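Reproducibility note. Readers wishing to regenerate the assembly model reported in the main text can use the exact inputs given here. Chain order matters: entities are listed in the order in which they were concatenated for prediction.
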Amino acid sequence: MARRAALDGWSRLVAWLKVLLPLLALGLLSTLFLVSNRVDPEDAIPYAQVDVEERLREPRMTAPTYAGTTRDGAALELRADETRPATADGQGQTAKKVNARLSTPDGAVTDLAADAAVMAPDGNEVTLTGNVTFNSSTGYDLVTEALTARLDETAIRSTTPVRATGPVGQITADRMELTQRGDGGAGYLLVFNGSVKLVFQPAK
Amino acid sequence: QTAINLTGLRQDTSLPVEVAADSLAVDQTDGQATFSGNVKVTQGDMTIQAGEARVEYTPDGKGIDRILLSGRVLFASPTDAAEADEAVYTIDTGVVVLTGDVLLTQGSTTISGGRLVYDLDQGTGSMEGRVQTVFTPGKAQP
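Running the prediction on these inputs yields the following structure tokens for the assembly.
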């Protein structure tokens, strides 16, 4: 009789377990799927917000830089916000919000900045337009509208009137040119041409 | 040594100096500025015309120390005029030194000589070297 009672207890236990264990399993499974926070597959990969069609139609580079040295050993570095390749009709590469740095072997550093730039089709001259500023470490800061800089040798010249502030006074001129010294000596000449006017206020 | 009174050319040397020319070349290594092509320096009502002008800076590089003019130099003011081959104008002292057959005309009299040194502030000058002058006697002063 006692053995049957033990058996009854055991089968009652098994009967209860048959109910409890699946419930427990169900609870565990739900924490995996039912309760866990939703994963949104959409924002898993952040997409770039660039208009793809426009990019295809007008291929361009953002934040390009150009670096090179001229024949006379001056390092030229151009940086822009955005540049577009040369178009079929022969117009050279264009760039927006350009700034350039020319460090000549004599130690002088010239910083140029402009709104836009166009590279000549033959590739060895770039024309900066749109309130061009030219700041030289020798103390000359110029403002003009258009400036062309050769890429193969140090020769920067402006084709529009120039207003400059020198270490000594205000200078205005029709054109300006930064070139190597003609007589073969080392060093560079900043030349202003065409009705040049310098105004200097004595210190007294 | 003849002392000359140059009131006509006396003027304040602290007025702004204006230099106009056809071209200005600035040497980037030593900052040497050279004006060329009918240079005209004006300060107040005095004008200096020359073929070429070289500017020398003050040691600190912030101001003009001297202007050296060459090619036939002509100083002019409303009343007097001086002419020479070369001239050196030191701005802060207001002293102008003209050299090379100087010709000074004051109203109707003309004085020529080798070298003329005069001070713009005081309006006094001294002519040296073979001074010759021409008076026109008997003419009624206008």
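We highlight two features of this model. Chain A touches chain B at residues 104, 106, 108, 136, 138-140, 166-169, 171, 173, 178, 181, 186-204 (CB under 8 Å). The longest strand of chain A covers residues 188-200.
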